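Worked example

This section walks through a single chain of length 232. The input is the sequence exactly as stored; nothing has been trimmed or padded.
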Amino acid sequence: MRAHRAVPAEAADGETGGALLAINGGKPLPPADEQRRLRVLLVDGQDLIHWGFKMLLASESWVERFVAAHTSTHALELARRYEPHVAVIDLQVGRESGADLCEQMRETCPGTRVLLMSAADRMTAHSAKGVGAAGFVPKGWGARDIAGAARMVGLGMTVFAPEADQPPNLLTEREREVLEMIAAGATNRAIAEHLFLSPHTVKDHTSALYRKMKARNRAEAILRAQRLGLLA
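Given that input, the structure is written out below as tokens.
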């Protein structure tokens, strides 16, 4: 893989496949870091993602060691054993929250910096920083660009995709309205009356947003929405 350059948020470089990196205020990569080797931990529930990153990073001179985990428990075990410089964590690891794992990772291994990624959900820089992450990128960038972002995070930089580059919000406008009223403590009946909907329709909207957010109840939906920056 060609060495990725840190570029200003206003510019795009062909080396990133068109992905716009808002990295470290646009400061260039220090020459001393060009030869620095990093230990990388990948946390993702899909075998195909593991295989792709393993194949990609195996030949990279900047990678000292690559390890991967399918679960939060295994990820924390590997982090304690290998003390990775950077952990690339999917925002949804199976039924587990990547944001929760990020917080645990920062507590267990303070020296490990975290890059969050997701194929579906969006996350603001403010929300990502709130759980201790040094970056967030969409999986739509592809493995090579995400690997470049992981290297930069491991070298102490921050990497956040511009809002236009992030995956679109999966909730409809009506589902967002229902979510906001749920967060305010309103019952389904109260939501129906306020939005001039039938209780059955409100139930359908609630079930849909739970499914999209992978939440089992109101509490999980509110917590996940806050972590993703969907609620003020």
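What to look for: The first helix runs from residue 47 to 57.
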